[in-house]
Amino acid sequence: MKVAVQQVDGRLIIAHRLVSMRTVDDADPDEIRRDLVAVVTALEGHTDCSFTVQWMCDPRPNDPQDGVIDVAVLTAFNGGSLPDRIDEVADDVVDLLNGPPGVWRFEVVEDELALAVLLDPIVPTHLAGIVRREAPLRPDLQSATLGFGASGTRRPQPRPDLWSMWTLGPPSQDTHRMSAALLAQEAPVCVRMTIAPTDLTTQEVELLEDLVSRQGAASERQLSVQASLHTLETMLYLRPLFEASCVVASPDPLSASLLSMIGHTLSEPTPHHEPRGVLAGGYTVVRQTQRAALRAAYTDLGTTSVGGGLAAPGLERLRHLLGAWEAANLFRLPVAGSDGAPGHHLDDRPKLRGILQALPSDGAQIGSLAGRDRPVAIDHTDRLRHTYVVGQTGTGKSTLLLNLASADIDAGHGVCVIDPHGDLVEDLLRRIPSNRIDDVVLIDPADAVAVPGVNLIEAETEAQKRYLVSETANMMYALFDPTRQGIVGPRFESMMRNCMLLLEHVRDIPGSFLDVATVFSDPAVREFLTRRISDPQLAEFWLGEFPASQRSNEAGEVIAWFRSKFEVFRTSPALRAVIGQARSTISFSDVLEKKQILLVNLSKGSLGEYDSRLLGHVIVMKLWAAVLERTNRAAEDREPFFLYIDEFQNVTTDSLATMLAEGRKYGVGLTLANQFFDQLAVNTRNALLGNVGTKLALRLGPHDAPAFAQWLGAQVEPDELSRLPNHHLVAALSPGGIPTAPVLIETCGPCARSATSADDVRSASRARWGRPVGQITDEFVERWAAVPNSFAAKAKAHRDHRTVEEPRASAPSEPSFLSSWKAKRSEGADDV
């Protein structure tokens, strides 16, 4: 953290500026009062420093509402302080100021020029000080003797060593009137309120004890003496103790009304319900009679005694010594109520930024605590407990995912990113380190040059085959029949399952998922495959049940109904190029175990809604089928792998709950993101609630905020989630598996790009994993052409026939009209 430092009369000075503050509701004043006293108390340990709260008002006399009040906390180090204390104190102060009750947001001043302006904002021609009120002790009067012979006189009881010293009242939360009074001035005004931790000297203790013991015996019935003694005696045991001063400065004369308003804000009178209340809540304005002391206190940011005093020699400092409750009056920070805070910038961010707790800083960084330079990260062990990110578009969700995935890539982990929009993948391509270029596997169906092949039918083990077939059925339900209305149904599921098993079983001519429809619509292909069946269960369906079903009058309609679910995919050249290949060019087991980087661009603009979702489902299925094979590996050999899915609800099925429940034991951490919480099915919400360790919420809409706030806990209000600024999030973390209270985090900007170009990464992936698109298209069209009487064979024969006929038809027997006209025109030109 960079900290600007300036030296004034041998003292080093730093500053923290108030950037914004939130509005306080009616339930907060007592909490603010207690926490502000706690802040002051926490400063007790910095005995080598003084702390000045500065209100600098730049009024606009013609338009008061346009005036500005700049609030800062200036920290001055005593001459003996070590330079390395600067960072320590700067960090401590910003944590205290931005901590509970979470009202203010301060930032360290890093610019030297900005600090210089803060230290010398005006020409302090006119100064005034506000100090405790003191007065000579008014002696109590004895009542006159009643009856005959009474003298009728009252005899005063003088107390030559005793004087009255008022205490400052309890901290007032009303700074609105003080702000308004400052903004109403014609010239700038600077108010500096300084406190410095201190203690009574040995001499002060001895003098004070002697005074109290001598005067106390006769004070039982004298109210003013009793109140004065109580105030003085309190000094003996009051801890912590602070020496304080308040100086007001302006180029123009200071009005009495302004000083009165500031005085009443710093010293709120209290009811006289007990003896000490008689001397509670009093101040005195000290003007030009103490000019030298006032200027020293203003310029040096010290606690130079101003205002003289009535104390006996050796006790002059008592007038300026305050306990934490009184010192909180001078450590005055503005508070915005329901009527606002004139001159101050209000912050609509939630108060959660003030929560102080131990948060992780090692791992993939998600940002820093709002208003503080304290990074917050999630290490890879906690990421294996999964992460859920939700937020409206444009709030910074993609940038957050970019930074997390980039951190994993830089750390050498295996990563898969499934992006329905394409921008995230493109940004990641620009951030691949040079040493990881060969690890990148890019699946971009819109690539017109070369694409990898992903064959859903292929399975490395029997367990994988069963999983892929079952999960494909779930995929079709998710795509076409999410509410289970019978659009897919058991009959469709049976036909598809048996067809996939048939294509996987007979590999004489390798087929793909897109060939499922061909098996049912092309009798020759079906006969070719069924003649090679050696599995009795497959034979039962294909040689028994299916031929019998074809004798039904509705057989043709059933085939058409079944094929219709596949036509939307078969007619897409981009999708067909990837999942229509007969053999996969990438191994998902290698992606996991070799810690590769699988980037999947599912841009809906290039593919369309259904094609994008289908390919996303296929990638998730194939990857998770490889994950399940990790059962055969020892737990310590399962390298961490991180799967990112944006708009995950579009490419996952009901098996998501199983993935979340079992992912950690397989060494796979999921980061799932989407825009709307209420668009998730109830079972999906329950799966997230029960299995996700880290929840990150950017700004939510009014429908989402109440449900998600309830999920986060009582500390978060729905309206706080719905008014988050961009690039801010509320995080519920679980470091070490132990949940923390939600905190407000300001996310990082996009991480730096690498020196490697995206085109270089794309080219390397094409060369390693891709096949030419034209070659893929030819193979798909002619896959079944070798099967006699198949539709593909007939189409090939027709193409071959046209190839032979077209040259003969293209040679005209006599010149065309256009060629004759050109020839004649040329002859005419030659005659000229």
UniProtKB/TrEMBL annotation:
AAA+ ATPase domain segment(s): 383-540
Q: Which CDD domains match?
A: TrwB_TraG_TraD_VirD4
Entry-linked SUPFAM superfamilies: P-loop containing nucleoside triphosphate hydrolases (SSF52540)
Checking Gene3D superfamilies in the record gives: P-loop containing nucleotide triphosphate hydrolases
Protein origin, superkingdom: Bacteria
Pfam family name, one? DUF87
Q: Where is this region: Disordered?
A: 143-163, 794-832
Name of the protein this chain belongs to: DUF87 domain-containing protein
What is the native source organism of this protein?
A: Nocardioides immobilis
Where is the organism placed in the taxonomic lineage, from the top? Answer: Bacteria, Bacillati, Actinomycetota, Actinomycetes, Propionibacteriales
